[in-house]
Write a structure and sequence with these properties.
The protein is an alpha/beta fold. The chain contains 15 helices and 5 strands.
């Protein structure tokens, strides 16, 4: 995954005067941890951690024109994720010109997105019992290793013959991004490349994760999804028309147990509002930004670097898509029926 350009966000911004002679702000030193967290959405410790991982690879080769150090470059990128506005990054924090911000965000985004394999993975065999126990503690639903759903990230119209494929059912242009999370809201899988008109189930069916589940790589563990997905032995969905108390109990438990994925979308978009307000970049350059934000989210969880949700004005609402019952073989419902009879009939 590469980012070739991050230049289109500020097409309508007015040119800034040259800031070559301005004194650049040392934001890391100026702000205490609380102030820095409010502006950049992570703590000072997390910024230093990122610097320790890849700072040496983005360090300027010369001090000419007071080149920005790795920590400053990381903060500029985080400020973009926190606002979605290049002009605000330039104008109110670092006093550097737009082309410099463009290059820095490109450079740092690639470095963070490349950490994906370290921080975004399905539970290992050793982790699955703990993950399942965390889900079971929510509402007594057994053998769950993840909750799955999709969320839309707003984009500008990409133009061209295929542009309408990015218009979602709500009428705006978007990417439809699939994620799987555990009960602690850690992102376990992400696909961030499909146009907004593509159905959630299509994204899942085409994914490497679906192929792994079909092979039985995670048996007997299951995912929980909403009614936008077809029921499978490894992907359990609500019963559309429950007829018995056991089926109603199953639905209540299923809905509560997959709630973490809905919470995840809210937490992620509150921490990085660029994902809520939209990314005005070339379409091909947006997936690395989304993946980088997901990586940072997991890093923050691992470092207990929290953002206080109740003080944030954003309200994130994810709408469930219903699908009609299919003519698939009853084999797809055996696991669900067995769970209803075993765990929810008493």
């Amino acid at each position: 995954m590469s980012v070739s350009s991050l230049s289109s966000l500020s097409d309508n911004e007015t040119p800034l005067r040259s800031r070559r002679n301005d004194i650049k702000l040392n934001a890391f030193e100026k702000y205490d941890d609380k102030e820095l967290r409010a502006r950049f959405r992570v703590s000072k410790e997390t910024v230093l951690y990122l610097d320790s991982v890849f700072g040496s690879t983005i360090k300027p080769l010369t001090k000419r024109n007071r080149s920005l150090q790795p920590v400053d470059q990381i903060l500029i990128t985080l400020r973009y994720y926190a606002t979605g506005s290049y002009q605000r990054v330039i104008g109110d924090i670092f006093h550097i010109e737009q082309p410099s911000v463009h290059r820095i965000v490109h450079r740092v985004t690639v470095k963070i997105a490349n950490m994906r394999s370290l921080f975004i993975n399905m539970p290992t065999a050793e982790e699955r019992l703990e993950v399942a126990n965390d889900f079971y503690a929510i509402a007594g639903f057994p053998r769950v290793m993840g909750a799955i759903d999709c969320t839309h990230i707003k984009i500008n119209s990409p133009g061209g013959a295929q542009s309408e494929s990015f218009r979602n059912r709500k009428g705006y242009f978007s990417l439809n991004v699939q994620m799987v999370c555990d009960a602690k809201l850690r992102i376990r899988n992400i696909i961030a490349r499909w146009p907004g008109s593509v159905h959630d189930s299509t994204i899942f069916n085409d994914s490497p994760l679906c192929a792994q589940l079909e092979r039985g790589d995670f048996t007997p563990m299951v995912l929980l999804g909403d009614s936008g997905y077809p029921c499978r032995p490894y992907l359990l969905t609500p019963i559309l028309n429950p007829r018995t108390p056991a089926e109603e109990a199953y639905n209540r438990s299923q809905i509560r147990t997959r709630n973490p994925i809905e919470r995840l979308f809210g937490v992620l978009k509150r921490r990085f509002p660029c994902l809520h307000y939209g990314l005005g970049l070339k379409t091909t350059n947006i997936p690395p930004i989304i993946v980088a934000c997901a990586v940072l989210h997991n890093i923050a969880i691992s470092r207990q670097d929290e953002v206080v949700e109740e003080d944030d004005p954003l309200t994130i609402v994810e709408e469930e898509i219903m699908v009609q019952p299919s003519n698939e073989t009853n084999q797809n419902f055996i696991v669900r029926t067995s769970l209803v009879n075993t765990y929810f009939s008493g």
